[in-house]
Amino acid sequence: MRKVYSRIESIAGNVISVRAEGVRYKDLAVVESRHGSSLAEVIRLKDDLVSLQVFAGGRGISTGDQVRFLGYPMRVAFSEDLLGRIFTGSGKPRDGGPELTSKLIEIGGPSVNPAKRIIPRNMVRTGIPMIDLFNTLVESQKLPIFSVSGEPYNELLARIALQAEVDIIILGGIGLKYDDYLGYKEALENGGAMSRTVFFVHTASDPIVEALLVPDIALAVAENFALEGKKVLVLLSDMTNFSDALKEISITMEQVPSNRGYPGDLYSQLAARYEKAVDFEGAGSITILGVTTMPGDDVTHPVPDNTGYITEGQFYLRNGRIEPFGSLSRLKQMVNGKTREDHRALMDGMIKLYAGYKESLEKKSMGFRMSNWDNKLLKYGELFERSMMDLKVNIPLEKALDQGWDILAECFDPSETGLKTDLIRKFWPKKEAVHG
Predict the structure, then answer these.
(1) Which fold has domain 76-333?
(2) What region does 345 belong to: left with phi over 0, alpha with psi -120 to 50, or beta?
(3) I need a surface site. Which of 19, 170, 303, 321 has the fewest CB within 10 A?
(4) Domain residue ranges in the chain
(5) pTM of the predicted model, to two decimals?
(6) What are 221-245's pLDDT values in tens digits?
(7) What's the CATH code, domain 4-73?
(8) Are 407 and 433 in contact (CB under 8 A)?
């Protein structure tokens, strides 16, 4: 029988402190007040002083209320019954369905031993040319999408959830606006992808501690599906909201702040989640895409700055498009040489020409006279943006490669592309392409 403590030493916002023994970090507790019972989690231990984050908030709790420690950390049910369901950040049903209680698994465990991992080797197809062709997503990769508020990053994640060639999608919403939550729900249901999706959602009006739980719950479920041989894609939005929740709790705990008020262990907290990406030998894999919004479009902000050191590249979402400059998948060379022989050469050649288009566009805006080559680049850039960069474009990789050749043929002579002669002989379109 667990001992009940009936004296709360202090209450600071959502954090309460009691003196107790035999308690472990991350253990759960139940706080009994006159308003009912609330779940809480141990977030700091200092000698016998235990600090707990109350899920439902500290309002209504008094120093004479009872605290009962459960002796185990946060757990979530795991089974195939999770698929097609929507849960809160603490794993409770949000869709009106039954609560799942079988096969409880602990969340927030350590990442996989590097010795047990295998080298990434498979492409994750998304149907988005700016990813598949130019910055290929690789199975077991961890990549952030750097963006600013107002960009359609939730719509992009929803599209990836619908189109990605994986077995299971685990969607984790952190600090979502209610409209964005409904947008995800509607997109998944209308697109027929809900049956292979598990959705954990924390909205801006939910308890802040649940914002911290969403990535851990999503990744714990993903890990168990991966061990069963499934290819799992984890989509998280928004990791800046996760980091802000860390900051808020550290301020409540009166911890010494680091850069811009964030806790000193921000890097470790982010790495503990992103490093869950893994490809298991003889089993499945976990691939992670996490949105990171940049306040003021500032990439030196602590959240994107720390994230960039952890992940294997990044996508920049600007003006409703994935930017070719700055976006990087460091593992793309592991797979784009195995897709089609022209993939790597076409990718490099088209980006080089697009850089030339940007220079010609700048010359035009400054009033310089346009040469014939400049006019070709301007035509090419407009076609490239419309046929490749527009996020509404939804085509498989092979068709994107063919379309790339069509765009080149419409704007340049073969000798002007800088591509190898043997590739031009094999892939150059026989007829002139027509783009509307």
Answers:
(1) Rossmann fold (3.40.50)
(2) alpha
(3) 19
(4) 4-73, 76-333, 343-427
(5) 0.91
(6) 999 999 999 999 999 999 999 999 9
(7) 2.40.10.170
(8) yes
